[in-house]
């Protein structure tokens, strides 16, 4: 290899390396934030719904601080190279989506849409060739949400909240109906989607137990 | 997904509409992915054909210059390499037009999304291109050299050439060169050629060694390159040792080798199944006889 070519290659390598290091730094930061959030969110399983608001307020500033990290990432990624690097932060970003959607559900009983999550996490749609929230990552986050809610259905009953499982059941069924419309290939999303039915089964069992013993008010079933 | 309205529990329809959009998006992505895999496979096949063509042209024409003297032989060999390279270039243009066609599919941020689908074909193409380039110039094609074959008339690249594909494509070249050296070793002027290739591959290996920390796959390929190199070195060694036993001029040695090869295997078709071993076996046969 002639020296000119070698130099060219080394330059490219150096540039890539610089980008990689900078991304790593930000991803570590994002990771720290999502870990903090999931630590706090773990307490929902032992917090009565009346005491949820202060808990959620604790998470919100952390969630908001993800905006800075995301903006930094968008600045680091060279134009058109979003897909080249995205594996580096996908998992962290999915965790952030999970935290955002869980807070959304706990606060208002709704599923936050992708654009809403994007807004909460401060991911500007105009960055799309550098930094974006792809459908795939959003959907992964939503599956994590369902996983978590199946746990919450059980623990809510333990805390004496018999309505929650019924609410969750209806919410999760709608999401499942949505997922079943997708033509998923054999990838991790597909495998995780396949596992959703176990969550649904678990929630159904809780609903069955609660209904059978007439613990929950009957009107909730219709929602 | 353009409207940021919330989907609440009483609005299943809204959620369905949103998932419909996801479905369209995912379908679009999967379809494009499939199309690119198919194109990449076509590129791989065509590239393999170019490589076979080069091997064939470099060995089949051997008898053309059978009676020439050493000097002319050398020139005949250059001519053959040029001829082979120009034929290969025609074929390579076919591949380049496939790349031109998939350019639209790979626009903007899409290239890196589908890089893994395009990569196998791209590497095979680089292997064929660099083999052609080696036969023509005796040199390793540069990064810019490869990129310039994947660009339109204005010189705008169809897509950014990934360094990884360039390096891995070149790494595969060493295997082809080994085959080329071994199959030509038993022919007129082949031993010099084998020595040239040997030195060239040795340099490649040294150059690539520096790059191994950056590319996972290169590590494995370096091992293959080392094996290839060793095969060429062993062959060169065997030739050197044995030719020293006989006080013959290189030309006479060539004649003996050629005769032996043609009597035991016929001419041509040497680079089929076990081309790695056969030429060396030929030599053994010759001297035992």
UniProtKB/TrEMBL annotation, chain A:
* Listed GO MF terms: RNA binding; sequence-specific DNA binding; single-stranded DNA binding
InterPro entries, alphabetically?
Translin, Translin_C, Translin_fam, Translin_N, Translin_sf
Gene Ontology process terms (BP)? RNA metabolic process
Q: Which family does it belong to?
A: Belongs to the translin family.
A cellular-component GO term for this protein: cytoplasm
- Chief subcellular location equals cytoplasm
Keywords in UniProt for this one? Cytoplasm, DNA-binding, Nucleus, RNA-binding
Q: What is this protein called?
A: Translin
Q: Which organism is it from?
A: Phlebiopsis gigantea (strain 11061_1 CR5-6)
The record's subcellular locations are: Cytoplasm; Nucleus
From TrEMBL, chain B:
> Where found, per UniProt?
Cytoplasm; Nucleus
| Highest taxon above the source species | Eukaryota
Q: Which Pfam families match?
A: Translin (PF01997)
GO cellular component, alphabetical, reads: cytoplasm; nucleus
**Assigned keywords, A-Z:** Cytoplasm, Nucleus
SUPFAM superfamilies associated with the record: Translin (SSF74784)
Q: Does the keyword Cytoplasm apply?
A: yes
What residue spans carry the region label Disordered? 260-289
Q: Which GO terms describe its molecular function?
A: sequence-specific DNA binding
Entry's family note: Belongs to the translin family.
Protein name, entry field:
Translin
* Record lineage: Eukaryota, Fungi, Dikarya, Basidiomycota, Agaricomycotina
